Amino acid sequence: MGRKLVAGNWKMNGTNADLKEIEALGIAWAAPRVDIVICPPATLVSRMAFALGGQPIRVGGQDCHAEESGAHTGDISAEMLKDAGARYVIVGHSERRADHHETDEMVRAKAEAAHKAGLTAIICLGESLEQREAGETLDVVGRQLAASLPDGATASNTVVAYEPIWAIGTGKVPSVEQIAEVHGALRAGLAERFAGEADGIRLLYGGSVKPDNAAEIFGVENVDGALVGGASLKSTDFSPIVSALE
Ligand code: PEP
């Protein structure tokens, strides 16, 4: 198992003025014992990477197109993110699956594009409340895992984020038993398909992670870190979450 990872997803939030949050993080985490990634909107990737300079905090995109270039107005490719200074890219976030009708096949193609560009793909999956209540969670995430991860996934190019849709931005968090059950099933699914790489592919939990619940979540077996939305926008919220993982 490699280093643990905390990734912040700023979603459609942030302008140049918010780069001060990155300066504060850079000062607080000059030599972190865990990997730290911030995924700002595409407009800030380049400036954030520049602002971080040689510091260990990495920058990621929130999505990429599956193709390298071409007639896709408004989209950006994994190569462009790499060129702008990104090292990671989130693919398959539930908001993109919902808002842009992204299927597992599309997510897999995006992850392949990320790998080709030399980026680490943070591949998101997770069940809806309806699926959870119908007892379908393990089937749903198992199918998503199988269909969204490319065959070339390795410990260094792939991170999986389990994000129950009903926990994102709601303040609701699954019980530690529920998180353990899903993460255990995901680890077993990875082991079946990726053998030697499976233990190294980091499994993040995402959905209403906050400073006051992070330590409990990080104590769950097979949780290798977190994907954090709302609480990643302010360094005063994000830093205690990083501390809880250290
Ligand atoms: C997310 O958007 O990936 C997320 C986990 O959001 P939040 O932490 O705000 O629930």
Automatic annotation (TrEMBL):
The record describes its quaternary structure and partners as: Homodimer.
- Please state where this protein is localized: Cytoplasm
Q: What is this protein called?
A: Triosephosphate isomerase
State which pathway it belongs to: Carbohydrate biosynthesis; gluconeogenesis; Carbohydrate metabolism; erythritol degradation; Carbohydrate degradation; glycolysis; D-glyceraldehyde 3-phosphate from glycerone phosphate: step 1/1
PANTHER family (alphabetical): TRIOSEPHOSPHATE ISOMERASE (PTHR21139)
Classification via InterPro entries: Aldolase_TIM, TIM_sf, TrioseP_Isoase_bac/euk, Triosephosphate_isomerase, Triosephosphate_isomerase_AS
PROSITE patterns with a match to the protein in the record: TIM_1 (PS00171), TIM_2 (PS51440)
Signal peptide range: none
Give the NCBIfam families listed for this entry.
Answer: tim (TIGR00419)
Q: Does the keyword DNA damage apply?
A: no
